[in-house]
Design brief:
This protein has three domains: about 55 residues; about 210 residues, Peroxisomal Thiolase, Chain A, domain 1; about 210 residues, Peroxisomal Thiolase, Chain A, domain 1 (3-Layer(aba) Sandwich), CATH 3.40.47. The chain contains 16 helices and 13 strands. It has a nine-stranded mixed beta sheet, with helices on both faces. Strand 9 and strand 10 form a beta hairpin. The radius of gyration is 26 Å and the shape is globular. The N and C termini lie far apart (about 55 Å).
Length: about 500
């Protein structure tokens, strides 16, 4: 509470100084007017007032101080042969379901080092409320311990906490679990986001940004925690559209510390350049493309519709123009506009409809998003989807490497995957001062969210040395991504 009172006192002092400065400027203006001093002296108090008003109207820059991501204990590791045997032994799946999940897992490209929560290692798997609460603690606490240790910011200094977990919403909330564990201050602004899918992490960043701006001075640090409680997502039925999550979802957790102040003791690594959100939940087809529901036997699971690819395409078409307007430089906007004009001109000039459909349509120009962000973090939903998304964005496999490598190493970790990908770029030593990183999250709803971060500090001569990464990528990043993947008819 002492730290909370200190923050409120500092905010009050800042407001008082602003009012005092404004009053002094007015008094100086009257003084110049009454004494008929030189006209040029009128400019001094006017300029001071303008500077004060401009400063008060500026939004605080939001920075990413640092982030931490979890490497689960090795005892929770699942190999491909092990999980296939697990499917056969637990007794809740018929032969058709086992065969379907086996084909999906074998074709997925995931390695033998992904992780399942402890309750799902049991035979039969346990998915009780108590198991989910235990899993939440096993994810949150080690990750936050590492974050506080890396940044040197104590839990008592955190003024806002945002926790996103799509499938698990207990009472007390997951945010309250963390507040209780770390004894956070009484005025901490805590939020729990649920049901928002793989895009929830950047929603959490947006919520934290709003709090930091609305309570500038009183709240200087915000923590965003992204995780998925896989235990409650386990599906023990026979519907193939619901069995997919058993095959690709794995354990992961990440926590990020945001700030609206610059402190030498805790310098920020990144500056938030842009954050854009798009929500198409009003569209019935998109709304029903991915949802949690019961099957014909009353077993609850998460369904993934066959039209999900088309929904994702429409979602990106709605999302990317808004993002491009924010992050693309003017020369790229002009180049893209000129390319569109040429395309539509040749399209009108084309006399053959077949030629238009076959050749011209493939030549539709695309903006070069690499002009606005050098490094990409994409939804790690699966190898084919990552490659199709990269193709749609007009980038190659090199730019999609972080998403491919993260999925191969850790599987689909929902919203936390974007932070594992940022750590991948850092572990490879690629993020240099001035570079921009684009995090793109897409989730049920459907919704698409983007955050663009700019590196503002340099480590090791302008790049993050691979040896400096002591986390999950530290001893294995050189092995990913695996270039050659087995291909089956499922792909």
């Amino acid at each position: 509470m002492e730290l909370a009172h200190k923050d409120h006192l500092l905010a009050a002092v800042h407001r008082l100084l602003g009012v005092a400065t404004l009053v002094l400027c007015l008094i100086a203006e009257l003084f110049v007017l009454v004494l008929h001093l030189h006209r040029a002296l009128y400019l001094l108090p006017v300029c001071a007032m303008l500077l004060l008003l401009r400063r008060s109207g500026l939004r605080a820059d939001i920075s990413l101080v640092d982030f931490a991501y979890l490497r689960p204990p090795r005892r929770l590791r699942v190999t491909t042969p092990g999980i296939l045997e697990h499917f056969r032994l637990i007794g809740c799946f018929d032969d058709g379901s086992v065969e379907f999940m086996s084909r999906v897992v074998e074709a997925s490209g995931m390695c033998n080092e992904t992780y399942f929560p402890a309750p799902l290692h049991r035979i039969p798997p346990s998915a009780t409320h108590a198991d989910a609460v235990q899993e939440a603690g096993a994810l949150f606490f080690p990750t936050l311990d590492e974050l506080f240790a890396k940044t040197g910011v104590p839990p008592s200094a955190v003024g806002a906490l945002v926790v996103n977990c799509s499938g698990f919403c207990p009472a007390p909330s997951l945010a309250s679990v963390i507040v209780n564990r770390y004894g956070m201050r009484g005025d901490v602004k805590a939020f729990s986001l649920s049901g928002m899918g793989c895009a929830a992490g950047l929603v959490g960043v947006d919520v934290a940004r709003g709090v930091l701006r609305a309570h500038e001075g009183a709240v200087q640090h915000a923590v965003v925690v992204s995780a998925e409680i896989v235990t409650v997502g386990w599906y023990a039925g026979k519907d193939p559209s619901k069995l997919l999550l058993n095959c690709v979802f794995r354990t992961g957790c990440a926590a990020a510390l945001l700030s609206n102040t610059v402190v030498e003791a805790t310098p920020a690594k990144y500056r938030l350049v842009a954050l854009t959100r798009t929500n198409l939940a009003a569209d019935d087809r998109g709304y029903a493309s991915a949802l949690r529901e019961e099957d014909d036997e009353g077993i609850t699971g998460f369904s993934i519709g066959r039209g999900l690819g088309g929904v994702a395409r429409d979602l990106l078409r709605a999302h990317l123009p808004s993002l491009g307007a924010e992050i693309l430089p003017w020369h790229e906007k002009l180049r893209y506009a000129a390319a569109l004009v040429r395309f539509h001109y040749y399209r009108r000039q084309s006399s053959s409809k077949k030629l238009l459909d076959k050749d011209v349509q493939d030549a539709v120009p695309k903006p070069n998003f690499l002009a606005g962000a050098k490094h990409l973090c994409l939804p790690a939903s699966g190898m084919p989807m990552i490659r199709k998304l990269a193709e749609g964005l007009g980038v190659g496999e090199r730019e999609a490497e972080a998403a491919l490598g993260t999925f191969q190493r850790f599987g689909n970790q929902s919203a936390s995957s974007l932070w594992y990908q940022l750590a991948y770029h850092e572990a490879k030593g690629r993020v240099r001062k001035g570079d921009r990183v684009w995090q793109l999250g897409m989730g049920s709803g459907p919704k698409a969210n983007s955050a663009v971060w700019e590196r503002v500090v340099a480590d090791g001569g302008g790049a993050v040395a691979p040896a400096a990464d002591e986390g999950p990528w530290g001893d294995c990043v050189h092995r990913f991504p695996v270039r050659e993947q087995p291909r089956t008819e499922f792909d």
